[in-house]
Amino acid sequence: MRIDVLRFAEGAKQARGLVVVIDVFRAFSTACYVMAGGAERIVPVGDLELAYRLKRLLPDAVLIGERGGVRQPGFDYGNSPTRVRDVRFDGKTVIQTTSAGTQGIANARDADEIVTGSFVNAGAVVRYIMSRRPERVSLVCMGFAAREPAEEDELCAEYIRNALLGRPNDFAAIVARLRGESGTNRFLDAEGDPDADNPRSDFDLCLALDRFPFVLRAEPWTPPEGVGTASDWGGSKAEPGGADGSSGTFAEKRLVCLRKQVVA
Q1: Most confidently predicted of 85-89, 147-151, 241-245
Q2: Where is this region: Disordered (predicted)?
Q3: Which terminus of the chain has fewer CB atoms gathered within 10 Å of its CB, N or C?
């Protein structure tokens, strides 16, 4: 099994085989908590305008995510596991757009298949990969805003790679390393503030190792009529802070949804 470690949106474009798009703080940790809350699917999109348009066409859908770590106007929730962990999303479609994680999915156009990666379901990701026995695995670290390295994503990729190769991992050391460096610096909002975008509890929730026994696997998804083409919603232009920057019509782009698959 060949295992490549790639980075950012450009790395996602280069990814081949079974692709694991990693965003620990916080997109794909939050996504796992959402799915654990009963959501039917998550539709990850790279473009903010597209997310708004999908919400208008699917008024019963839940819109979550951020730009620059901040929940955007009209969003139901931000990108915080703290804010969604006790919410019931039973049967809901959830539209998610973020500065990093969803950009990776939008750009991984040459993948054979895509799953998300984070510590909260790392064991399930490893078991899933082993069950699929792919010739090639691409671990894509999305980093901060899909353009700067993020230590937590690098460490998660290393953790998954070690597990696939039968090498030991020291998760306690990983937590200590993140707690002492960049990890806690992102979560500065007061814990008691109900509107905080970055509550301190997100740190621990994102590092709850193997809390969930499932992977989030990308499947083709047909959007509702009226979404339009890429030129209509700005899909041919890159957003500041990391966007998919793709071109061509919307019909030429692969829009997917994430569904939960339990891995024994």
Answers
A1: 85-89
A2: 223-247
A3: C
Give the CA distances from residue 256 to residues 175, 185, 216, 228, in Å, rounded to whole numbers and listed in that order: 32, 33, 12, 16
> Structural domain boundaries of the chain?
2-262
116-143 pLDDT, tens digit per residue, is 999 999 999 999 999 999 999 999 999 9
Residues 23 and 29: their CA atoms lie apart, in Å, by 7
Q: Which fold has domain 2-262?
A: putative 2-phosphosulfolactate phosphatase (3.90.1560)
Q: Which of 135, 119, 140, 150 is nearest to 218 (CA)?
A: 140
Say what the pTM is.
Answer: 0.90
User: How far apart are the C-alpha atoms of 55 and 93, rounded to whole Å?
Assistant: 10
The dihedral through the CA atoms of 97, 217, 168, 172 has a sign that is positive
The strand pair at 2-7 and 136-141 is best described as parallel
